[in-house]
Amino acid sequence: MVKAAGRAYIGGMVTRLYTHPIFLEHITPPGHPERPDRLRAIERVLDDEVFAALDRAEAPEGDEATILYAHPQEFVERVRAMIPDIGIARVDADTTASPKSWQAAVTAIGAANAAVDDVFRGDVANVFVAARPPGHHAEKATSMGFCLFNTAAIAARYAQRQHQAERVAIVDWDVHHGNGTQDIFWDDPSVLYCSTHQMPLYPGTGAVSETGAGNIVNAPLAPQTGSEVFRDAFLSRILPALDNFAPDLIIISAGFDAHHRDPLAEINLTEDDFDWATGQLMQRAGRHSDNRLVSLLEGGYDLQGLAFSVAAHVGRLMKG
Ligand SMILES: [Zn+2]
Fold first, then answer.
1. Looking at the whole model, is its pTM more than 0.85?
2. In order of start, what are the domains of the chain with their CATH numbers?
3. Average pLDDT of 96-109?
4. How far is the CA of 133 from the centre of ligand 1 (A)?
5. Is the pLDDT of residue 2 over 50?
6. Which of 2, 148, 197, 272 has its CA 20 to 30 A from that of 306?
7. Which CDD domains does the record cross-reference, listed alphabetically (predicted)?
8. DSSP assignments along 167-194, one per residue
9. Which of 106, 82, 112, 86 is nearest to 95 (CA)?
């Protein structure tokens, strides 16, 4: 595609934040790690005056038809039928739905697609979407791992269909492998999927040998490793793959459960690592994608680790 040369941001780089009260109404059972308090913790930390320049916007209503960009109709209807009128319905071993879960999931998709619109129009420099439920475990026809639909995959296809993006890269630093995203793009070389994740760990996929159509780059991390191994995976595997692919858009599946405080995994990153990785991806977005960068919240289950990590991530997005 033709890239706009030297787009200037009058008044400097602006970072947009999309969120919506409906994301608090996707209710999970007591004790479930993927809970509304995660977003409250993010909201609180981003209330600080150092984030005063954030362009805060309410997520628009999502277009249900865009779910079909990544999932078959029959599956979409199966998910819709699982949404309960009251209480909490079990979708899989650890995935549940409450009465407002459909609206939350569709609004998360609406926010991600709007973020794609924003960066292609050049309205803002980059966007962080603070939404739930997360998405990267949702396969073509399977909801799992706290995820109903694969928001990042839908947004990537949305960029291709609505903005003529030829190549979209999804970089997933959630501590769990994004089996869903890998499944959806397994034979689609127009989307590069790069992931760092703990292995072994749920969901069990993500070996180096899983390469799809040459468009899948898995960089598994051994338990109890940390900053050095994570940064080396970026420098030796993920960033070279991005340079080789030259994407028109970079989407981050931004999970923060590789933070050392997180209860679901044993990778020992700090918020400084997320700051660093964000900076690296911004550099690549500047080099290849006319700065177009959209970041979507995935996991992160220790409220303090999550809040500090999001603060570092969004702070870096704002600094440029
Ligand atoms: Zn995760």
1. yes
2. 15-319 (3.40.800.20)
3. 98
4. 12
5. no
6. 148
7. HDAC_classII_2
8. -EEEEE-SSS--HHHHHHHTT-TTEEEE
9. 82
Cα–Cα distances in angstroms (integers) from residue 106 to residues 33, 70, 100, 135, in the given order: 21, 13, 10, 11
Taking residues 251-280, report their average pLDDT.
98
% residues pLDDT > 70 (the chain)? 96
pLDDT of residue 241: 98
The catalytic residue positions are: 137
- Please give the average per-residue pLDDT across 222-243, as a whole number: 98
DSSP letter for 20, please: -
> Cα–Cα distance between 16 and 263 in angstroms, integer?
29
The amino acid at residue 26 is H
Query: Among all chains, which residue has been given the structure tokens 């954030």?
Result: 54
In the chain, the amino acid numbered 100 is K
What's the count of helices (H) and strands (E) in the chain, helices before strands?
A: 9, 10
The number of beta carbons lying within 10 Å of the beta carbon of residue 47 is: 9
pLDDT at 10 over 80: no
CA distances from 213 to 158, 191, 242 (A): 21, 10, 15
Expressed in angstroms and rounded, the spacing between residue 197 Cα and the centre of ligand 1 is 8
**Gap from CA of 67 to ligand 1 centroid (Å):** 22
Structure tokens at 279: 């900076």
Please state, in angstroms and rounded to a whole number, the distance separating the CA atoms of residues 109 and 107. Answer: 5
Burial class (CB in 10 A: 0-12, 13-18, 19+), 286: middle
Helix, strand or coil for residue 5?
coil
